[in-house]
């Protein structure tokens, strides 16, 4: 049987154009309960979002072959955010949704190797090879970021920062949307910009 793959966004030039996803599921909404999911991690253990109720959770959709993702890992921006989250008691979950045969696909052992090689510090890397979580959150690009408060409510969704490029030198001068939102949620403050436009490489979905 042939697996059909659908691209939910398009990348052009230095940035990404988000296209309206053709998804039947209700779109995730700021202030609404975050969709639960159950996915295997890099060790094969099943992780559920609901397992982390009582703690702030950051979701990072990732693809190690994507230049926009590499921008934030090569600059150590992503690793710094992961460690900041851990220091403040939050849970950071990296989600790899690329299906087999597509750019960015990883197995559990490969995910562990990448984490070590990049000196990354997520609480876990989750393997979403059937697009279950990506579809629930309507994640369109990598990186696509979400912040969930300790009561399980979605508080932020969108881009990691304000400059839609793949240039490492732009990280330092960009407005850090994700960092600001994450710290606001951890500290119990309102998120100033709860929804921004994500940019990056298109996530490939397995058709439902």
Automatic annotation (TrEMBL):
InterPro entries linked: AhpC/TSA, PRX-like1, TAT_signal, Thioredoxin-like_sf, Thioredoxin_domain
Annotated Thioredoxin domain residues: 28-180
Keywords, in A-Z order: Signal
Gene Ontology terms for molecular function: antioxidant activity; oxidoreductase activity
PROSITE patterns for the chain: TAT, THIOREDOXIN_2
Secretion signal span: 1-26
Protein name (Swiss-Prot/TrEMBL): Peroxiredoxin
Originating species: Neoroseomonas alkaliterrae
């Amino acid at each position: 049987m042939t697996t059909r793959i659908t691209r939910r966004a398009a990348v052009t030039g230095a940035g990404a154009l988000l296209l309206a996803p053709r998804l039947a599921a209700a779109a995730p909404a700021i202030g609404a309960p975050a969709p639960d999911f159950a996915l295997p991690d890099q060790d094969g253990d099943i992780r559920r979002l609901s397992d982390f109720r009582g703690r702030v959770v950051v979701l990072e959709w990732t693809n190690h072959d994507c230049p926009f993702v590499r921008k934030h890992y090569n600059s150590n921006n992503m690793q710094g955010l992961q460690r900041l989250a851990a220091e403040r008691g939050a849970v950071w979950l990296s989600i790899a949704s690329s299906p087999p045969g597509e750019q960015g696909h990883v197995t559990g052992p490969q995910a562990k190797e990448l984490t070590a090689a990049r000196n990354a510090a997520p609480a876990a890397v989750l393997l979403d090879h059937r697009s279950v979580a990506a579809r629930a959150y309507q994640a369109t690009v990598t990186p696509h970021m979400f912040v969930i408060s300790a009561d399980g409510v979605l508080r932020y969704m969108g881009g990691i920062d304000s400059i839609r490029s793949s240039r490492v030198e732009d990280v330092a001068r960009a407005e850090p949307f994700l960092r600001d939102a994450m710290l606001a949620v951890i500290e119990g403050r309102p998120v100033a910009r709860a929804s921004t436009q994500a940019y990056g490489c298109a996530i490939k979905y397995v058709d439902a």
